Amino acid sequence: MEFQHELIIPNEGLPFKLFLFEGGSGNYIREKHWHTSIEIFAVLEGSLSFYLNEVEHPLSAGELIIINSNEIHSIHAPEKNKTVVLQIPLKQFEDYFTAQRYIRFSGKGGMAEENGTDKLQDKKLNTLIQELYQVYTAKETGYSFRTRALYYEILYLLVSCYRETEVSERDIHYSRRLDALSKITTYMREHYTEDLKLSEVASMFGYSPEYLSRMFKKYAKINFKTYLQDIRMAYAYRELLNTDKTISQIALDHGFCGSRAFSKEFRKRYGLLPSELRSSLPAHTG
């Protein structure tokens, strides 16, 4: 569970990143985040929901969604699911940019929709992604050739059937601002245990505190202080689930002034205390 600009690194030896969604066991929430890569979620089993601009997009088996570069989104997966995630670096599409470093794909089969075949295009794309995952994980003789062949067929389908050729200057401006903001949030992620102040971070990146504050509110839909607390809480939450460290130590390790402040913030967000969550875990040994 993390809250930040996500840095995506391709699988070794390949131009993309492919994996099973980490929320497949259910009872999972990934809060608002964004990345420069294009991301496709193809649901094979079960269901989950995406939130884009506060609008819910529920997905069930056989459906998919395309997350565009710098598109803020969150994911809720209350039930078990099997979902393949394909992340494609933005530079893969540089020959098809509508404007400088900008390209956008429709969530459904954009151009194909005019012919009433958008669901067929989605089904084809979903099938290709599923086959790509099967071939890549099986790693049989010659699999690297087949994975690349499937991957480039997916790229072809994206640019020929899903690419939006008309975009507004407002969308381009918005994307560029998030490019700038992502550099700042990456720094915050790397230094979140420190006493980060808005004025100091703004100065470091050449902005006034007032301007940086407006950037967060307008483009990340959250203020600087809350975003920083989100990062701290995300990492603290993960350690609470996966380590035997004391709650006091977790609080101090992740930038909170003490266990009381951590517990207060935790209860406000999750409706229970850190100790209550930990004691409810099946593997808890007390």
Largest sheet: number of strands, sense, barrel closure: 7 strands, antiparallel
- What is the gyration radius calculated from CA atoms? 20 Å
Low-confidence runs: 1-5, 108-116
Helix content: 40-55%
Secondary structure topology:
Layout: E1 17-20, E2 28-33, E3 38-52, E4 55-60, E5 64-67, E6 73-77, E7 81-88, H1 110-113, H2 118-138, H3 143-162, H4 169-190, H5 198-204, H6 209-220, H7 224-242, H8 247-253, H9 259-270, H10 274-280
Antiparallel strand pairs: 1-7, 2-6, 3-4, 3-5, 3-6, 3-7
Please provide a written account of the structure.
With about 290 residues, this protein is of the alpha+beta class. The chain is about 45% helix and about 15% strand. The chain has helices at about 110-115, 120-140, 145-160, 170-190, 200-205, 210-220, 225-240, 245-255, 260-270, 275-280, and strands spanning about 15-20, 30-35, 40-50, 55-60, 65, 75, 80-90. Strands 1, 2, 3, 4, 5, 6 and 7 form a 7-stranded antiparallel beta sheet that branches. The two termini are about 25 Å apart.
Note the main attributes of this structure.
286 residues; alpha+beta; 7 strands; disordered N terminus
Briefly characterize the structure.
46% of the residues lie in helices and 17% in strands. With 286 residues, the protein is α+β, with helices and mostly antiparallel strands. Strands 1, 2, 3, 4, 5, 6 and 7 form a seven-stranded antiparallel beta sheet that branches.
